[in-house]
Amino acid sequence: MIKFLNKERLIKELDGIFSGAEEFMYIVSPYVKLDSWLRKNIKECSAEEFILVYGKKMMEQKSYYFFDDFADIDLFFHPDLHAKVYINEKFALVSSMNLYDYSLDNNIECGVLIPSEEKSYDYVLDFVADIIEDSRPLPGRLNKKKFKKKKI
Questions:
Q1: How many domains, the chain?
Q2: Structure pTM?
Q3: Is 143 inside a domain boundary?
């Protein structure tokens, strides 16, 4: 069942998406500035494939250097990005929230949680795959085989 989430439920479900990812974790967020909660979630995520797409402007330097410790996290950039999606093999979270500490602390945020059994999940996954394909990998940050779009 698709669920609407306020900010408190959104943060709780995002915790679950990070911790529940086994096959893949894809993050689409134009702005990235990591606080300790987000760093912890990224460190503890055990997904086999982890892709982060950000955009609009270059990532805040401290957050970018954080990813240097994770050779298996692929970073992509898309200058026109405004969408925010967090997805693993079990759930898609479409949200107003950037992966930005200010958003977590100060903004009124909401989102929609879609389980993988819902047809809408397939549309979200396809949307994210299109964004990844249309983005440019950061030099030296694409360490795995080339991302291949999953057909739905």
A1: 1
A2: 0.90
A3: no
